[in-house]
Amino acid sequence: MRFSKLFGKTLKEIPSEADTLSHQLLLRAGMIQQVAAGIYSYLPLGWRVLRKVEQIIREEMNKAGGQELMLPALQPFEIWEESGRYPSFGKTLFTIIDRKEHKLALGPTHEEVITMLVRRYVQSYRDLPLLLYQIQNKFRDEPRPRGGLLRVREFIMKDLYSFHTDEADLDRSYQEMIQAYKNVYSRCGLPAVVVEADSGAIGGKESHEFMLIAETGEDEIVYCSNCDYAANIEKARSVKPELETKTPLPVEEISTPNIKTIEEVANFVGVPSSHTLKAVFYSTDAELVFVVIRGDLDVNETKLKNLLKCSELRLATEIEVKSAGLVAGSASPIGIKGIKIIADDSITIGSNFIAGANKPDTHLKNVNYPRDFKVDLIADIAVARPGDNCPKCNGKLLASHGIEVGHVFKLGTFLSEKLGAFFLDRNGVSQPIIMGTYGIGLGRLLAAAVEQNHDDKGIIWPVAIAPYHLYFCPLRLEDSGIAETAEKLYQDLIKENLDVLFDDRDESPGVKFNDADLLGIPLRLTLSPRTLQSQSVEAKWRKENQTQLFPIEETSARVKKLFETA
Q: Which residue from 29, 71, 106, 255 has the fewest beta carbons nearer than 10 Å?
């Protein structure tokens, strides 16, 4: 490709709307362009990267036994009602009304459609297992699109769905797909970490995410320094610090004027925050919920939402708290009636806690569970923290930031049962098909690759997914000797089936070198009057500082060999 013919322009300045590094660099490199909030066009350079990623994914899905198909983006809204999943997606589900007043949805995912398709064609255990996948656009009405391609409203996704006769076959396929995903990221030059994850709106009983470690990542992952345990912060568990359990003392009321926060209460009484009980109020789909947790811990709202099995969860407003007769800053579960009380299991680790007295400027000493109060549900609903002990081996937990680039789920039978996807087993008994679902967001992976691979000059693409293998940069093309030699070398490189971006522009060396660094193409070849005198070409890897000289006549063969071993 000749740069002079390339559609798109590089930018010197950082676009004002770009709020993440990948967003900035992809815009500056002329790889994407925003159409509206969360909606992007892929320009030729960006599209080439995406197509290379897509091909790697396709090869690994085929190798794992997947069959590619294409499902419609438009879906009848009735199937979302039939599955019962539309409340989980809420306002993120795009809906439209057609000219016949029929309600449709733009697919955020395709479990419903694929299950109904399989229902039509699968009758017997002999028809299973099945692995079906597609690569196409999805739509989610994100309330706050941000980060360029990291959080968008329209995105390209590979989604594979598996169908099985029993749990053992699902487990086997699930592990094979995890390995296929590892192969994808390895081939893309993007090492990913597998972590336990929350299933979210997709549902199912088990799921794992694939994370690219990046300081700019929006997700926090917790992992063990001693074993292979790793989880998204939404799912992460930990062994909570033990407290000495003492003989329960009588409850004692104390005056705490103008003292409301946990830190203030702990300092006033002279105890660590771990010796207090924190009250947090939430509004769910239909009721106010009182949550009690040890004062040194925070509520994990994803765990709480899953425990309550609610569609919506948010912190209660001050008005809602007052209307329920609760006293913010001095509340406790003691004596509370008519409100659901949820407790973190940390309240069982310790004794003689400080808690609110349910009246202003007053707290209680020596509060103990279950002597002094009862709860409706008790479970692990706390945020796991770095420094806590690992739930698997008791080693120390560490934390890092990452970007989700893939997610796999064991769906089980809840969708097949609701949508009537059954099969006859070996005994002629009708059974629900057991399902799994596996997704990779291609645009998100592209952005994550940039977040993980860049420097202060621009992008540094891994070889396998770079838009071009090499950036051929002749200088002083007004020199007829340079122009003639450059054209011949360009043709020789093409004959070796190398992807070449030929910078044939009449620009200064500084402009060309800056664009080469910004675009991040793995290898730069420079032909200049100086190198032409020695009948050589300067070669430089984008991620390295040193250069080397190749004889002009050997350049195409030498470069091909470099990429064969890269």
A: 255
Domain of 556, CATH number, reads 3.40.50.800
d(CA 42, CA 446): 11
Give strand pairing partners of 100: none
Indicate whether 221 belongs to any domain. yes
Indicate whether 32 and 126 sit together in one domain: yes
Helix axes 442-452, 44-63, angle to 10 degrees: 110
State phi, psi for 395 to the nearest 5 degrees: -70, 175
> 239: buried, middle or exposed (CB in 10 Å: 19+, 13-18, 0-12)?
middle
Confidence (pLDDT) at 416: 96
**The two three-digit tokens of residue 344, written as one number:** 């973190």
The residue with tokens 């790793």 is 230
Same domain membership, residue 314 and residue 230: no
Between CA 439 and CA 199 the distance in angstroms is 12
Residue that finishes a domain, picked among 390, 417, 451: 451
Strands 130-139, 154-164: pairing kind? antiparallel
The whole-model pTM stands at 0.85
Structure tokens at 114: 């694929």
CB 64 within 8 A of CB 58: no
Angstrom distance (rounded) from CA 140 to CA 137: 10
Give the pLDDT of residue 2.
95
- SS3 assignment, position 60: helix
Q: How far is it, in rounded angstroms, from Cα 235 to Cα 383?
A: 9
The number of beta carbons lying within 10 Å of the beta carbon of residue 420 is 11
Q: Which of helix, strand or coil describes residue 210?
A: strand
Higher pLDDT, 213 or 104: 104
Residue 42 to residue 138: CA distance in whole angstroms: 15
- What is residue 31's DSSP assignment? S
* Strand 397-412 relative to strand 206-213, pairing: antiparallel
Residues 86 and 209 in one domain: yes
CA neighbor of 108 nearest in space, from 142, 66, 132, 149: 142
> Confidence band (pLDDT; 50, 70, 90) for 315?
very high
Contact (CB, 8 A) for 185 and 446: no
CATH of the domain at 86: 3.30.930.10
pLDDT at 312: 87
Name residue 548's beta-bridge partners.
539
- 12 domain residue, yes or no: no
Strand 377-379 with 430-432, pairing: unpaired
| DSSP helix/strand/coil, 401 | strand
Output the domain CATH number for residue 365. 3.90.960.10
Cβ neighbours of residue 274 closer than 8 Å, sequence gap 6 or more: 241, 243, 294, 295, 296, 350
Q: Does residue 480 lie in a domain region?
A: yes
Tens of pLDDT, residues 8-31 = 999 999 998 898 999 999 999 999
Same domain, 185 and 300: no
For the chain, the residue count is 566
Task: Give the residue numbers spanning the domain of 288.
Answer: 252-379
Same domain, 417 and 478: no
Q: Which residue has the tokens 């990046």?
A: 214
pLDDT at residue 203 in the model? 54
149 in the same domain as 211: yes
How many other CB atoms sit within 10 Å of the CB of residue 499?
17
Indicate whether 167 pLDDT > 80: yes
